[in-house]
Design a protein that fits this description.
Largest interface: A-B, 40 and 43 residues
Oligomer: heterodimer
Structural class of chain B: alpha/beta
Helix content of chain B: 40-55%
Bound molecules: guanosine-5'-triphosphate, magnesium ion
Shape of chain A: elongated
Helix content of chain A: 40-55%
Number of helices of chain B: 11
Largest sheet of chain A: 8 strands, mixed
Number of helices of chain A: 10
Strand content of chain A: 5-15%
Strand content of chain B: 5-15%
Radius of gyration of chain A: 21 Å
Distance between the termini of chain B: 6 Å
Strand order of the largest sheet of chain A: 3-2-4-1-5-6-7-8
Number of strands of chain B: 8
Order of helices and strands of chain B: HHHHEHEHEHEHEHEHEEH
């Protein structure tokens, strides 16, 4: 914006453009611009610096209901990871396993994607690299069966945390969403309360469709946290502001690369800073 | 829907003579919103509405249409025109083998689409070879080998870096008289210099007839940036949009076409290997407009 001087019409248009380009979306951008104009009308905004500070503040306000760390409860704690195809679920599980293993926890991975070619092999390579065991069945077998076996093992052998990988699926496919619900039901029958955490993995390059994904996945299963991946690219993931506003699901983690250490806690202030870079 | 919103501005009456500047601008505002909600890139929306404005001001509402129908007709034609005409298929080499490189961001659907293309070509009586040139992602080679078995297409894989692997694969195809070599590459960020150079080196060595950007239909504003970068570095020859059977509006299609000028050749409409279809600009236009 150029940091000095009074706020012009062009400045406001530029701000709008930055927000839209960051996938914040029309409705949320409109909401933010109206909040800014209100502040300006009340004389609360002092020049260009003031407007950026006000904007940051308004975005943080929308993100307020969606803050929360990923925390582990008492063992056997169960985390299920869900999301549409290709968002980074399997890789995120590798990163989580790495984090928990580094903390000295006993981790069990569950190859719950029994459908996609080499999905089990992919998770197995990660399990070996991180140095944690994995439960798997034959490709093509029922994913709920793998969940059942894995949770039996988790309880019997005292795993601190069990992480269930699931196949990518479009939220609009009713039968696939039913399969997911069944996996969750089987988990809770085997271990009451399980899955204790259900993480929805969203790709930062996704546009407005992420809102539809968040809505439909959280209708099917109790999504307790969001992971926003591929933030090491140029996409800003601005759609999570709308998701936060509408669904108040905590954004817990971000993916910033393809390696097992490329996982960070979500930091709202850093996220907002990055929107304007 | 967009039609309802435009009708709110222009009213329901047929036989209205011409569209005024004021009506056009109010209508363009709705169209702009619809396109942005559909993930069309903000600059592309700007250019589009600008060119639309001159087509609409003073426009006569033709025989039997309501003003809304006239506007929707013009907008839809304009988008279809931008998205490209009739289906553009693959370009084959005058002398085999034809080389096809699959490129794009992580998780966009390259490996699956490579196998889908192999199946399609096989059904057309061609003899394809798949090449597993992703040496980075865990079990990427296994993934393509598994898919290759599923469709009965040979998968070349081996030691060395992706450039060497592609080079040897094309040599093998040439020697054996195979028709098409489909090279699956690792997903990469358009801003990863080393990996973009790797793609340039593969291109330089094998001189493919097709370099296809595989892009996710739900991609947001960055679709334009990503496509432009891949195009500047590699000179794309076409695009495949994946995961199109979902409810993403797919504005990325318009952004990608606008910045690259290259045809969207196919769309992925499912995870099964038969689920690859030719791209239909008219269907895409109404989907984007919502
Ligand atoms: N740059 C980058 N790439 C990522 C990140 N997370 C995952 N990826 C890459 O995205 C691609 C897809 O990752 P997967 O973990 O297989 O995604 P998935 O959701 O399990 O995919 P499906 O099981 O097929 O639905 C891989 O190439 C990963 O390396 C990230 O944070 N940054
Ligand atoms: N629903 C749907 N899923 C698709 C489609 N095409 C691919 N997929 C899925 O998207 C996910 C990613 O596909 P891949 O082929 O592994 O993607 P990729 O681009 O090779 O991924 P990287 O190699 O990691 O960059 C997988 O779960 C595929 O089954 C499609 O048209 N529709
Ligand atoms: Mg996976
Ligand atoms: Mg791949």
């Amino acid at each position: 914006l150029g940091i000095k001087g009074e706020v012009t019409r062009e400045d406001l248009e530029r701000i709008e453009e930055i927000l839209i380009s960051a996938d914040v979306g029309v409705e949320t951008t409109d909401k933010l611009m109206k909040a800014l104009e209100k502040r300006m009308a009340r004389g609360e905004v002092r020049g260009k610096e003031g407007i950026m500070a006000a904007l940051r503040d308004e975005i943080l306000r929308l993100l307020q209901g969606a803050q929360g760390r990923l925390e582990l409860g008492p063992p056997p704690w169960v985390i299920m990871v869900v999301g549409v195809n290709g968002t980074g679920k399997t890789t995120t599980i590798a990163k989580l396993a790495r984090r928990f293993a580094n903390e000295g926890r006993k981790v069990l991975l569950v190859a719950g994607d029994t459908f996609r070619a080499a999905a089990i092999e992919q998770l197995e390579i990660w399990a070996d690299r991180v140095g944690v065991p994995m439960v798997k069945h034959q490709p093509g077998s029922h994913p709920s069966g793998v969940v059942y076996d894995a949770l039996q093992a988790a309880r019997a052998r005292g795993y601190d945390v069990t992480i269930i990988d699931t196949a990518g699926r479009l939220h609009t496919k009713v039968n696939l969403m039913e399969e997911l619900k069944k996996m969750a039901r089987v988990a809770s029958k085997e271990l009451p309360g399980a899955p204790h955490e259900t993480l929805l993995v969203l790709d930062a390059t996704t546009g407005q469709n992420a809102l539809s994904q968040a809505r439909l996945f959280s209708q099917a299963v109790p999504v307790t946290g969001l992971v926003l991946t591929k933030l090491d690219g140029t996409a800003k993931g601005g759609i999570i502001i709308a998701i936060a506003g509408e669904l108040s699901i905590p954004i817990k983690l971000i993916g910033v690369g393809e390696g097992m250490d490329d996982l960070q806690d979500f930091d709202a202030e850093a996220f907002v800073e990055a929107l304007f870079e | 829907s967009l039609s309802d919103r435009i009708q709110g501005i222009l009213g329901k009456f047929k036989g209205k003579a011409r569209l005024t500047e004021k009506e056009v601008d109010a209508t363009l505002r709705e169209i702009r919103l619809a396109l942005l909600e559909a993930d069309v890139h903000i600059q592309v929306v700007r250019q589009f509405t600008e060119s639309l404005r001159s087509r609409l001001i003073g426009r006569e509402v033709t025989g039997g249409l309501t003003p809304t129908q006239e506007v929707v007709k013009v907008v839809s034609e304009e988008i279809q025109g931008l998205l490209g005409g009739s289906h553009e298929g693959l370009k084959f080499a005058s002398r085999p083998p034809t080389g096809i490189m699959m490129v794009g961001l992580q998780g966009s659907g390259k490996t699956t689409t490579a196998a889908k293309l192999a199946l399609m070509l096989k059904k057309q009586g061609k003899w394809p070879l798949l090449v597993a040139a992703d040496v980075y992602r865990p079990a990427a080679v296994e993934q393509l080998v598994t898919l290759g078995k599923e469709v009965g297409v040979e998968v070349y894989h081996g030691e060395g870096d992706p450039v060497e692997i592609c080079g040897r694969a094309v040599e093998k195809a040439r020697k054996d008289g195979m028709d098409v070599v489909i090279m699956d590459t690792a997903g990469r960020l358009h801003v990863d210099e080393l990996l973009m150079v790797e793609l340039e080196r593969i291109k330089g060595l094998v001189q493919p007839q097709e370099i296809l950007l595989v892009a996710d239909a739900m991609t947001g504003q960055e679709a334009a940036n990503v496509a432009r970068t891949f195009h500047e570095r590699l000179n794309l020859t076409g695009v495949v949009l994946t995961k199109m059977e979902g409810d993403a509006r797919g504005g990325a299609a318009l952004s990608i076409k606008a910045v690259t000028g290259q045809p969207i050749k196919f769309v992925g409409v499912g995870e099964k290997l038969e689920q690859l279809e030719p791209f239909h600009p008219d269907r895409m236009a109404s989907r984007i407009l919502g």
